[in-house]
Amino acid sequence: MPAPTSWLDLFKPEYAGKVIVPNLTTSGGFQTLVMMAKLHGGGEDNIDPGFEAMKRLKPRHTEFYLSNAEAGQLMERGDATVGAMYDNATWYMTDGGKPIRWTVPKEGALVGMVSLHIAPKTEHLELCKKFVNFAISKDANEAFCNQIMAGQPTSSRPWSSRRRRACRSLTASSFLTGTRS
After folding, report:
1. Residue 117 lies in a domain
2. 37 and 58, same structural domain?
3. Per residue of the chain (181 residues), what is the pLDDT tens digit?
4. What is the CATH number of the domain that holds 22?
5. Per the domain annotation, does 118 fall within a domain?
6. Which whole-number Å values give the CA distances from 55 to 46, 52, 82, 136, 168, in the listed order?
7. Are 101 and 139 found together in one domain?
8. Radius of gyration over alpha carbons of the chain, in Å?
């Protein structure tokens, strides 16, 4: 089966019944919805085309998965052959010898981001600032990449970690399309 080159490939007949995409309530679900909206005449400010596209995709898909582990199991069993997954979800499968490839659709990849917020009128403002400063520090970001296996969000320097190979070209956790070969 050919690897997908476009987000629209998820609608192709040859992938029918073998497509996985994240549930809208989980990580990556909103990004997939936005991409579908953009590809069908909408966008962030006009999300309805995305919902309509997801409705059209539903009969063709295998699962709206709730976790990377679930997506990986569907791919490993062969229940799914193509799907929208975060890149780091494919690394542990590839590192484990599983026949999965990670591709970037021609329309581009989306970014999953983590944001930190301090509530107005917090009683612990200095403690909150200390936590935010730690969370965006080089040490915290190296640990995040090395242990969580996600991309490099705040530093342009490479790590001396066991995950340098996987992280070397990333600036953030990218939302990409995975496929079994």
Report:
1. no
2. yes
3. 778 899 999 999 988 899 999 998 887 888 899 999 999 999 989 999 999 999 998 887 778 899 888 888 888 888 888 888 877 677 777 777 877 777 889 998 766 666 788 999 999 999 999 999 998 888 888 777 776 655 545 444 444 443 444 433 332 233 333 333 3
4. 3.40.190.10
5. no
6. 16, 5, 18, 38, 37
7. no
8. 18
